[in-house]
Amino acid sequence: MKNIKKLLIAAITITGVSLFLTPDSAFAQTGVKRTDLQRHDISVPGHEAVQATISFEKGSAFGKHNHPGEEVIYVLAGTLQYEVEGQKPVILKAGEVLFIPAGKAHSAKNVGNNKAVELATYIVEKGKPILTLVK
After folding, report:
1. Of 124, 132, 126, 74, which Cα lies nearest the Cα of 101?
2. What predicted TM-score, i.e. pTM, was given to this entire model?
3. In this structure, what CATH number is given to the domain that contains residue 104?
4. Which listed site, 22, 62, 92, 95, has its alpha carbon 20 to 30 Å from 77?
5. For 12-35, what is each residue's pLDDT tens digit?
Protein backbone atom coordinates (compact mmCIF):
# COMPACT_ATOMS: atom_id res chain seq x y z
CA MET A 1 0.00 0.00 0.00
CA LYS A 2 2.86 2.42 0.82
CA ASN A 3 4.46 1.72 -2.57
CA ILE A 4 1.18 2.47 -4.37
CA LYS A 5 0.88 5.78 -2.51
CA LYS A 6 4.47 6.68 -3.42
CA LEU A 7 3.88 5.81 -7.08
CA LEU A 8 0.66 7.82 -7.16
CA ILE A 9 2.35 10.85 -5.58
CA ALA A 10 5.26 10.57 -8.04
CA ALA A 11 2.87 10.33 -11.01
CA ILE A 12 0.91 13.39 -9.87
CA THR A 13 4.12 15.35 -9.29
CA ILE A 14 5.54 14.45 -12.70
CA THR A 15 2.26 15.36 -14.40
CA GLY A 16 2.10 18.70 -12.60
CA VAL A 17 5.70 19.55 -13.45
CA SER A 18 5.24 18.61 -17.10
CA LEU A 19 2.28 20.97 -17.39
CA PHE A 20 4.49 23.83 -16.28
CA LEU A 21 7.41 22.87 -18.50
CA THR A 22 5.19 22.51 -21.57
CA PRO A 23 2.54 25.23 -21.37
CA ASP A 24 0.74 23.99 -24.50
CA SER A 25 -2.35 23.24 -22.40
CA ALA A 26 -2.56 26.95 -21.56
CA PHE A 27 -2.67 27.72 -25.29
CA ALA A 28 -5.13 25.00 -26.30
CA GLN A 29 -8.40 26.93 -26.11
CA THR A 30 -7.20 30.40 -27.06
CA GLY A 31 -6.53 30.20 -30.82
CA VAL A 32 -2.85 30.51 -29.96
CA LYS A 33 -0.36 27.77 -30.80
CA ARG A 34 3.18 27.48 -29.48
CA THR A 35 5.80 25.43 -31.34
CA ASP A 36 9.09 24.85 -29.53
CA LEU A 37 12.07 25.10 -31.90
CA GLN A 38 15.13 24.63 -29.70
CA ARG A 39 16.39 24.59 -26.10
CA HIS A 40 20.07 24.85 -25.13
CA ASP A 41 22.21 25.50 -22.09
CA ILE A 42 24.05 28.81 -22.27
CA SER A 43 27.29 30.08 -20.76
CA VAL A 44 25.47 31.61 -17.76
CA PRO A 45 25.30 28.85 -15.12
CA GLY A 46 21.75 27.69 -14.36
CA HIS A 47 20.23 29.35 -17.44
CA GLU A 48 19.12 28.22 -20.87
CA ALA A 49 17.88 29.66 -24.15
CA VAL A 50 14.53 28.50 -25.46
CA GLN A 51 13.16 29.48 -28.84
CA ALA A 52 9.57 29.02 -30.06
CA THR A 53 7.11 30.36 -32.58
CA ILE A 54 3.73 31.47 -31.29
CA SER A 55 0.89 31.68 -33.83
CA PHE A 56 -2.20 33.78 -33.14
CA GLU A 57 -5.37 33.20 -35.14
CA LYS A 58 -7.24 36.37 -36.17
CA GLY A 59 -8.66 38.05 -33.05
CA SER A 60 -7.02 35.63 -30.60
CA ALA A 61 -5.13 36.66 -27.50
CA PHE A 62 -3.02 35.19 -24.74
CA GLY A 63 -3.61 36.68 -21.29
CA LYS A 64 -1.26 37.98 -18.64
CA HIS A 65 1.72 35.79 -17.89
CA ASN A 66 5.41 36.07 -17.08
CA HIS A 67 8.66 34.17 -17.53
CA PRO A 68 11.61 33.40 -15.20
CA GLY A 69 13.92 35.39 -17.45
CA GLU A 70 13.97 37.73 -20.41
CA GLU A 71 11.89 37.33 -23.56
CA VAL A 72 12.95 38.74 -26.92
CA ILE A 73 10.17 38.91 -29.51
CA TYR A 74 10.46 39.25 -33.29
CA VAL A 75 7.15 39.51 -35.15
CA LEU A 76 7.29 37.28 -38.22
CA ALA A 77 3.81 37.98 -39.62
CA GLY A 78 0.69 40.01 -38.88
CA THR A 79 0.01 42.69 -36.28
CA LEU A 80 0.21 42.07 -32.53
CA GLN A 81 -0.59 44.31 -29.57
CA TYR A 82 1.49 43.76 -26.45
CA GLU A 83 0.74 45.03 -22.98
CA VAL A 84 3.74 44.89 -20.65
CA GLU A 85 3.45 45.72 -16.95
CA GLY A 86 4.52 49.33 -16.33
CA GLN A 87 4.59 50.27 -20.03
CA LYS A 88 2.11 51.71 -22.53
CA PRO A 89 0.58 49.15 -24.93
CA VAL A 90 2.51 48.78 -28.17
CA ILE A 91 1.42 47.50 -31.59
CA LEU A 92 4.05 45.68 -33.65
CA LYS A 93 4.00 44.52 -37.26
CA ALA A 94 6.13 41.96 -39.09
CA GLY A 95 9.82 42.81 -38.76
CA GLU A 96 9.49 44.68 -35.46
CA VAL A 97 10.89 43.61 -32.09
CA LEU A 98 10.12 43.82 -28.38
CA PHE A 99 12.15 43.10 -25.23
CA ILE A 100 10.30 41.95 -22.11
CA PRO A 101 12.27 42.05 -18.83
CA ALA A 102 12.35 39.03 -16.52
CA GLY A 103 9.25 38.55 -14.39
CA LYS A 104 7.20 41.35 -16.03
CA ALA A 105 3.56 40.41 -16.57
CA HIS A 106 2.51 40.83 -20.19
CA SER A 107 -0.12 39.79 -22.71
CA ALA A 108 -0.44 39.66 -26.49
CA LYS A 109 -3.35 39.99 -28.90
CA ASN A 110 -3.68 39.67 -32.66
CA VAL A 111 -5.20 43.00 -33.72
CA GLY A 112 -4.70 42.48 -37.45
CA ASN A 113 -6.90 41.00 -40.16
CA ASN A 114 -4.87 37.81 -40.61
CA LYS A 115 -2.97 35.21 -38.63
CA ALA A 116 0.00 36.64 -36.71
CA VAL A 117 3.22 34.85 -35.75
CA GLU A 118 6.05 35.79 -33.41
CA LEU A 119 9.46 34.25 -32.80
CA ALA A 120 10.05 34.24 -29.05
CA THR A 121 13.49 33.72 -27.56
CA TYR A 122 13.64 33.20 -23.80
CA ILE A 123 16.78 33.44 -21.68
CA VAL A 124 15.50 31.76 -18.52
CA GLU A 125 16.47 29.96 -15.34
CA LYS A 126 16.62 26.20 -15.85
CA GLY A 127 14.17 24.08 -13.90
CA LYS A 128 11.53 26.78 -13.55
CA PRO A 129 8.25 26.82 -15.51
CA ILE A 130 8.84 28.65 -18.80
CA LEU A 131 5.50 30.41 -18.38
CA THR A 132 3.36 31.29 -15.38
CA LEU A 133 -0.16 32.66 -15.78
CA VAL A 134 -0.87 35.85 -13.80
CA LYS A 135 -4.29 36.60 -12.34
Report:
1. 124
2. 0.79
3. 2.60.120.10
4. 22
5. 333 343 334 445 556 555 899 999
